[in-house]
Structures are given as C-alpha cells and as structure tokens.
Write a structure and sequence with these properties.
The complex is a heterodimer of chains A (about 300) and B (about 425).
Chain A (H helix, E strand, L loop, with lengths): L14 H18 L13 E6 L5 H12 L3 E6 L11 H9 L5 E6 L4 H6 L5 E7 L5 H15 L6 E5 L6 H12 L3 E5 L15 E3 L2 H7 L2 E4 L15 H8 L3 H6 L5 E3 L12 H4 L6 H21 L3
Parallel strand pairs in A: 1-2, 1-3, 3-4, 5-6, 5-8, 6-7, 8-9
Helix pairs in contact in A: 1-5, 1-11, 2-11, 5-6, 5-11
Chain B lengths: L1 E10 L9 E7 L2 E6 L8 E3 L5 E4 L1 E6 L12 H10 L2 E6 L10 H14 L2 E7 L12 H7 L3 E3 L8 H10 L7 E3 L12 E2 L2 H6 L3 E2 L2 H17 L3 E3 L5 H12 L4 E6 L1 H4 L21 H12 L5 E3 L7 H4 L16 H9 L5 H8 L1 H7 L14 E11 L18 E10 L4 E3 L3
Parallel strand pairs in B: 1-4, 1-5, 6-7, 7-8, 8-9, 10-13, 11-12, 13-14, 14-15
Antiparallel strand pairs in B: 1-2, 2-3, 5-16, 16-17, 17-18
The chains are: A alpha/beta (about 300), B alpha/beta (about 425).
C-alpha cells in the first residue's frame, strides 16, 4: 500500500512508497517477460488516459501497463476533443468520470493541474507529466533502471545534463534520487538552469567533461524546444558542441559511466548516436522498465480502492 | 437612524478625544454627542469587549469593474465590500471598459459612487486605453476630480512615457501611481522566483523585476521633479531603494498589500489559485523588511489590492488562472493578524486612515460632536474565520478564504449609510 491516494509527484511520496513501487515493479518485470504477459489484477478497474499534451512513449507505456493488468482502458487526447471547443479541465474530467471511471492517468501542460484536479474529483490520479513540474513515473523508472544496473542508488553520483529549467523529468529525478540516497548534479547552459536549484540540494556544473568525470550515471535530457518561446541559447550547433554527450568525451573519462535518456532523443544534439547506441547506454532498458514501473503504480493505487 | 457606540476607544489623532474610551452617539449621520455613559432611545447599540473607532478607512488602487465588467462587480457591490472592510472611500483604478481616461468617465465614477453612498476618488488612466503609449488628457481629468494617474494593474514599461507623464502633471501637482514591474524579465512568470517556484516547476518572477523598475522610476522622478506613489512593494531590496530616495528628499510614497504581510511564497505549495497574486507573494525575509518599512514610515499605506474576478478565471489550473484577489472585506483583519505584536494598533490604523489620505491629499474626518460620521468600528481582539459568507463582493476570488483572523471590523458609519457586519 502507498501512503497516498494519488501519485501526483515524487515530492508527495515517502521513501517507503518509492521502495514499495520499485519492489513491486521488479515482480511485474518478471511477469512481462513471461510468455503470457497478462495478469488479472485490475480486471474490474476502468482507467482513463487523459493526454492534454502530445505523448507517444509515456502513453503507450501506460496503456500497455494497464492492459497487462487487465484493466479497461479509455483514451482521450486533447487534440481531438472538446478541449478545443473551450471546455474546462474540470468539466472534461467530470464528464469522463460520470461514465464510472476509477482511475485517471493524465498529462497536462500546467504545473499543479493534477493537484488541482485531486481537490475536486474522487478517482485516483496518476501524473503522467504536468508542464515543467513533475513526471513521477519517469523518475521511478529511471531509479529502477539505475538500481538494476548498479545494484543500489545509495551514494551514487548522478549528473542530469541539459534543459533543467523546462524539464519535469529533471525535477522528479532530483526528488526521487535524493530520497533514495544518491547525489545529484546538473549540467547545462546557465540560462537553462533555475537560479535557485541549489536550494534543493543540487550542485551545478557548467563544464560537461568535469560533470561526466564526477558521475556514475549521466541522465541526458532532451532540449525542449517546444517549451522555449524565448531563445535560451544561440544555436543547436553551439549547444551540441558544449553540452552534447559524445563518444570522444566518454573515451577520455577514467571510468565507465551509465548513459540514460528519457526520450525522445534528438540525435546529434544532446547525445550523439554512437553514445545512444553504445553499451554505456541503458535507454531501451528504461523503456522496458517503464511498463513494469507503471504496472506497479497502477496496481498499488488500485489496491487502495478496496 | 440613531447609533450608539458604547465604550469605544477613539483612534483619531485630529480628534480632541484621541485615545480616550467614550460613548459616541450618532443621529442621522451626524455625531451628536461624545461622552461617558450616554444613552438614547431607539438607538442601535454597538458593543464589543474591546470596541475601537477610527476615521473610515481609505483604499488606494481598488479595482472597480463598472463600467464594462459588471459581471464581476458593480459600484453597489464594491460599496458593500468596502463597508464590510471599514472603508468609506476608495481610490479606484482606471482598468474598466471603457478605460477611465477623460472628464466624463471620471465624473461618471464619482457620481456613481455618490449615488451609491461611497466616496470614490478615481485614479485616471495615464496612457490612452492603458496601452502604455500615449498620454491621456490628464489636466482635464484632474479638473474633473481625478486624484492621480496610473495604468492601474498594468505597470508602465515605457520610460519615455513615464517621464512625459511626470512632467505633464507638474502644473497641478499631480501624482503618478505605478506598480514597479519589468514585464520582460519573466514574461510568463507565475510566482516569486525562489525555492518554491523551483520545487513546483512554475516559472519564477525574480525580485529584480520590481527593483529594476523602482530604480528607473526614481531616476525619472528625480529628473522630472514630480510626484510618485509606488504600489504594492513586495521586495526587501526595492523597499530599501525607496527608503534611500525618501531620505534624499524625493517626493515618493509607497504602499504594500495586506496579502504581502500575511502570505509568503511558501503558501503556494498547494497551487491555490486564489493566492496567485500580482505582485507575487515573496519570501519571509521580504515580509520582515516590509514590517520594518511600516515601522519606520517608509510605507504609508496598507492597500487591499481588491481585484474581483469571475470564477471562470480563477477556478482553473494555476498557470491559466488570472492574478488577483478580493481584498476590501479582509484587508484590515489580515494586516492586523499579520502585524499583531509587531506594529502598534495606532500605527496600523494610520496605514488605513491618515496614511492614504495624506497621499491622496484628502482631509481626515474628525470624530467630534457636530461632525458628519465617517467611521470604522472594530474590535482588534475579536477572532473569526473568513468564509464565503463574509464576501460582499459579487466575485468569490478571496485569498482570505478559510484564514483565521484576529481583529474584525464590526461596522462602518457614514453620513448617509450605516453598515453592520454579521457577528
């Protein structure tokens, strides 16, 4: 059981909650590698996947997780919905809930949208990304993947590289990794790093090579051009030159590090192809673990309904 | 109608009864008698354990919504909200539709106020349509009764415009009211930039967005040798700039909102859109500095920042919600609660009475026999919790919702009206 009715963000989970999710995910990872990948755990549960923002992998990952738990699933995307006609979030969700939906998986462009919703509706809510705030299941699957590769997170050094300012993945990762005992540094151009990040116990490094030399794991983030209506750096060329993770830099390090990326990858910008496809990289393991972690989250929340 | 205040401590420095605890008898809007153990037949009697009375409160920068936004607030409902908060006069902003920017619109607001029984002193628009570009007809508005000029909730960005406004109003000793804020620093800013904005992933508004504009405004003021009132100061460093300017003799005054004395960025962890305010709620260090500013007289007014908004603009995801909250009904209680033990009651009352009147060039009503009544009646010890039932405004966006206050306005008395709050 989790200490909370919803998974709105890592900062609302206890360390015990996180441990519980990771342990449960381990069991589900074993399940999804069986010839018959489906279990009946959520047979009477209806889940609505509400995506008010585009998503490919998170959405498919959640949908697969739900189907492998035998839940009934309805999908909703803002681009083909009444949201375009001016309906408010509350009205949209209340309409869907009137059709007897038990759980809501939502992605939304506004930070705090899930917390807002949780004050007004009864269903369990899982945050699949809220603007620049949190993306808790991504952080959980990242933590799971690091643990799988390195055994534990305790005292491990994790470098998050790239657009920290516009990244929900960075924020959730910071909260999650710290709760599990890891040390976190961030690296990127200063215009993409929140000024007050050190308040969260995070160090800032502007030199990518130094940062990579320091860390055990580098989590490379995508440059979120869609969230930038102001130019935060002059060109992708210059960004790739100073903050792109390339094989030539990794070869200069005195130890081997693990490379992660939440996807989708801008090859040749924040990460070069030879790094993304190398044996340093656990990018595809992250994707696989994503399904198991989301199954664990859904399963543990659904268990509270009884 | 006859009203008898029993054992009321009078806080009114211009009154011969200042700081004395006496009975006050008001007959048909005129103070008839002040003395001990007064009695009157058929009088409405106001008593409370620690009854106080002062001149009616004045608010600078109240957002009126008539004409144009009557679905948010009418002059009638803003009068009720004002009376509920102890106010007998407001200096209104020009962001209506049409904008208050010529003689007839200024007169309309004054006359609507008179018709409804509330003193409204319009602050006319500084730029045409508050678009921040060209000057309005300020001389004419001044003649019609405008007490100053401002683009209201829109901070003045164009330095040249502000400089010309400062110069233009000199012949009649006009005054510019501005919220100092540089819109280019954080165009999508939601809350104060700091620890909380970082934790919540909300775009932050750094303190420098205010400080830069205070510095600019003060430079322009010095150049033009004019008069300036800065609204809603929220930062420690900004306040320090004003303190230094006042010391050097610049004619600059400033106010702070009651919200910025009560709440800090830390109250936003819940993403409560009722606390989405402009200027944004800052840090506890800023609050301490603002309290210091009230004590040493740098700040001369605690304003309500009353800004009614319909529910459709507030009950939304945080980034989609508009900035602003109701304030008239709660400002005194909020400021009193936040400042209890930090600022003497007389000094607090000054911030609601003589302070704003001095800025606006108005005379403070005298609590004395023979004078027309213009009084706020309150009990600083009364504890109460602000609920929906305490809202008199037509809108519902109250940051004060659910807050437990110490100090309550019990009644407001003017020559024409008598308003009593429910207990």
């Amino acid at each position: 059981m989790l200490s909370t009715k919803h998974v709105l963000g890592i900062k609302y989970l206890t360390t015990a909650d996180i441990q519980k999710i990771l342990e449960t995910a381990q069991q589900f990872k074993e399940v999804i590698n069986r010839p018959i990948k489906k279990v009946p755990s959520l047979r009477d549960v209806t889940i609505a996947n509400l995506f008010f923002e585009n998503s490919t992998r998170t959405r498919i990952s959640f949908e697969l997780a739900e189907k492998r738990l035998s839940a009934d699933v309805v999908n909703f995307s803002a681009s083909s919905s009444s949201v375009k006609k001016g309906e408010t979030l509350l009205d949209t969700v209340n309409n869907i809930l009137s059709m007897k939906v038990d759980m809501v998986v939502m992605r939304h462009p506004s930070p705090g949208a899930h917390l807002f919703l949780s004050n007004h509706i009864d269903a369990n809510i899982i945050n699949a990304g809220d603007g620049t705030h949190e993306h808790p299941t991504q952080a959980l699957l990242d933590a799971y993947s690091i643990r799988e590769r390195l055994g534990s997170l305790d005292k491990k050094k994790i470098l998050i590289v790239g657009d920290i300012k516009h990244s929900r993945v960075a924020l959730s990762n910071i909260f999650c990794l710290q709760k599990l005992g890891a040390k976190v540094k961030v690296c990127g151009p200063p215009t993409l790093i929140p000024k007050h990040l050190p308040h969260l116990g995070v160090e800032v490094e502007y030199d990518l090579k130094k940062g990579l030399q320091w860390c055990d794991v580098a989590n490379v983030l995508r440059i979120q051009l869609e969230r930038q209506d102001i130019k935060y750096f002059p060109s992708l060329r210059e960004y790739a030159h100073y903050f792109g993770v390339k094989k030539s830099i990794l070869d200069e390090l005195t130890h081997q590090i693990v490379i992660m990326h939440p996807g989708p990858i801008n090859r040749g910008v924040e990460i070069s192809s030879d790094v993304a496809d190398s044996d340093h990289s656990i990018i595809l393991n992250q994707v696989e673990n994503g399904v198991a972690v989301r199954m664990a989250v859904l399963y543990l929340l659904a268990g509270q309904r009884n | 109608m006859h009203i008898l205040l029993k054992k009321a401590k009078i806080l009114n420095p211009v009154s011969p009864y200042h700081r004395r605890r006496l009975d006050i008898l008001v007959k048909n809007g005129i103070i008839r008698e002040i003395g001990k153990d007064l009695s009157a037949d058929k009088a409405e009697i106001i008593t409370s354990r620690n009854l106080h009375v002062s001149a009616g409160f004045v608010d600078i920068g109240t957002q009126i919504c008539e004409p144009g936004y009557e679905f948010r607030e009418t002059i009638e409902t803003i009068r009720d909200a004002a009376f509920a908060g102890g106010y007998t006069a407001i200096a209104s902003l020009a962001n209506t539709d049409p904008v208050i920017q010529n003689r007839s619109e200024v007169e309309f607001v004054i006359n609507r106020g008179k018709a409804c029984g509330i003193e409204i002193h319009p602050i006319g628009a500084l730029s045409q349509d508050t678009a921040g570009k060209d000057l309005t007809q300020m001389m004419e508005m001044h003649e019609a009764g405008a007490v100053g000029f401002s683009d209201g909730r829109k901070p003045i960005q164009d330095s040249g415009l502000l400089m010309r406004a400062f110069l233009y109003i000199k012949p009649f000793q006009g005054i510019v009211f501005d919220i100092p804020y540089d819109e280019n620093i954080a165009p999508h800013g939601q809350i104060h930039e700091g620890k909380v904005s970082t934790r919540l992933g909300l775009e932050g508004i750094p303190s420098i967005a205010e400080e830069i504009m205070i510095a600019r405004n003060l430079s322009l003021l010095e150049y033009a040798d004019s008069k300036l009132h800065l609204r809603g100061i929220s930062t420690r460093e900004g306040l320090q700039l004003i303190r230094e300017a006042q010391k050097s003799g610049l004619p600059v005054t400033c106010d702070v909102s009651a919200f910025h004395l009560m709440f800090s960025e830390e109250d936003l962890e819940s993403f409560d859109s009722n606390l989405k305010l402009f200027p944004p709620l800052r840090t506890k260090k800023d609050i301490s500095a603002l309290v210091r500013g009230l004590k040493d007289g740098v700040i001369q007014h605690i304003a309500s920042f009353h800004d009614p908004l319909e529910i459709e603009r507030k009950k939304l995801e945080f980034p989609y919600a508009d900035f602003g909250s109701l304030g008239l009904e709660s400002a005194f209680a909020m400021a009193h609660t936040a400042l209890k033990g930090k600022l003497a009651l007389g000094d607090l009352v000054h911030q609601f009475t003589d302070g704003p009147r001095t800025i606006l060039g108005l005379e403070t009503p005298v609590i004395d026999a023979g004078q027309p009544a213009n009084m706020a009646v309150f009990d600083p010890d009364k504890e109460w919790t602000f609920t929906d039932a305490h809202i008199r405004s037509q809108s519902r966006n109250a940051a004060a919702m659910g807050i437990k206050f110490t100090g309550k306005v019990l009644a407001t008395i003017t020559k024409q009206s008598y308003f009593q709050n429910s207990k």
